[in-house]
Amino acid sequence: MHKDKKAYHILVIEDNFGDFVLIEEYLAENILEANLKQIETFQAARKILQNPPGKFDLIFLDLTLPDLSGEKLIVEILELAGDTPVVALTGFSDLDFTIKSLSLGVSDYLLKDELTPTILYKTIVYSIQRKKFTDQIQRSEKRYSDLFQLSPLPMWVFDADTLKFLSINQAAINHYGYSEEEFLALSIADLRPKGESHGIAKELENLLLDPSSVQKNVFRHLKKSGETITVETTYKRLPFNERNAMLVIINDITDRNRHIETIEKQNQNLMEIAWIQSHVVRAPLARLLGLVNLLDTETSDLNAESKKLMGYIRDSAGELDEIIREISRKSETIEHLDKNED
Amino acid sequence: MKTELILVDDDPVLLVMLQKMFSIVDPNLQLSPFHSGKEALAYLSGNHDTAHQKFILLDINLRDMSAWQFMNEFENVRKTCPSVILITSSVASANAEKAKNYAPVVGFFEKPITFQNIEQILKLVGKH
């Protein structure tokens, strides 16, 4: 028979030497290089798994050891095994419990009384391979879960029919001040200020009709503290445990809006100041300029010194006039920019 | 026909100055000064003297109404508005643009009104 040339490192935690020899013999039939290490007690197994001389490909575990047995043994060994598959060795009398142990994370079980070289070999290859796949799936699941859980933006999933929260990420918990349990007892309508929760069903209508659509909205939300914030929400329909669910990403734009409001108010003030310059301040200035002109023609008999002083008044008023015109020109360009934006 | 110039400006000093300057340039011109739009409108609607050709020298920003309101009032309620020459102390260019949309407006001057402006205004009203 063709033998597996791959080298296997296998830990056998088994206090019955006869059983160990049997395993050793059977393995030799299918595997060319099977490096077995036998350990008889849980304590010894713990030592070796905590400071492994090399990584094991697989662990065989007898479910009754002199110092520990049953569920506690399984849990401890699985914890120590990490991503190494653990196969339980058992007799008929413990079969029910052994089957149950699969749910604890044991990869497979072998009945000692029915052991054959073929079954043993198949179990090893199958368990190693399957463990690789499940690890991959778990890592991938964790990655996607992290995308949601570790997102710096608050996110949640809610039931589109009941509006109840189904899942909330840490950022949402931090931002809104509700614990996960509190969130799960609320519906999305509870986050809206009084009188602003109507129309939610209508907002969701389009999203439910077109599963691929993404909808952005700006709402006001209440934090647990009662503080009102302005948020931009992005909705996307999401299949979630067979429910009609919506994934929501929340972007708090309260500060941004406040900044814009401040800037707009300042702009308004600047425009008013410019308006005062070009209309209000200029009125007495125009009067002054007119008076200087009139005086010029009426007082031709002034002496040279007085004429010079009169000239200074005219020049000063003229300068002031230029300044006001400049301010007015600048404010007109601002107005122009404003209109272009609209 | 004699020409009457109706001066409307809420700045009393300016009103005195304008009267003085016009009378220096043309002592025969009949001048009727008013401090508000309302007074001027009341005078114009009560006065049916057709012997005089009337012109209005009108400040854009009167305290009681704008020149635009003044002209609209004339066209909506009263008869045809006499020719209007607008004067303003504002340097905002939007006013000059807006003035183009008002048929009665025949001239637009920024204050201060100089003697050169007075000559130009008199030319507009058909004197000199």
UniProtKB/TrEMBL annotation, chain A:
Keywords: DNA-binding, Phosphoprotein, Transcription, Transcription regulation, Two-component regulatory system. The keyword Phosphoprotein applies. CDD domains: PAS (cd00130), REC (cd00156). Residues 140-211 form the PAS domain. The modification 4-aspartylphosphate is found at D62. Residues 9-127 form the Response regulatory domain. The keyword Phosphoprotein applies. InterPro entries: CheY-like_superfamily, HisK_dim/P_sf, PAS, PAS-like_dom_sf, Sig_transdc_resp-reg_receiver, WalR-like. NCBIfam families: sensory_box (TIGR00229). This is PAS domain S-box protein.
UniProtKB/TrEMBL annotation, chain B:
Signal peptide: none annotated. Residues 4-126 form the Response regulatory domain. PANTHER family: RESPONSE REGULATORY DOMAIN-CONTAINING PROTEIN, STRESS RESPONSE REGULATOR PROTEIN 1. This is Response regulator. CDD domains: REC. InterPro entries: Bact_response_regulator, CheY-like_superfamily, Sig_transdc_resp-reg_receiver. Keywords: Phosphoprotein. It comes from the Bacteria. It comes from Algoriphagus aestuariicola.
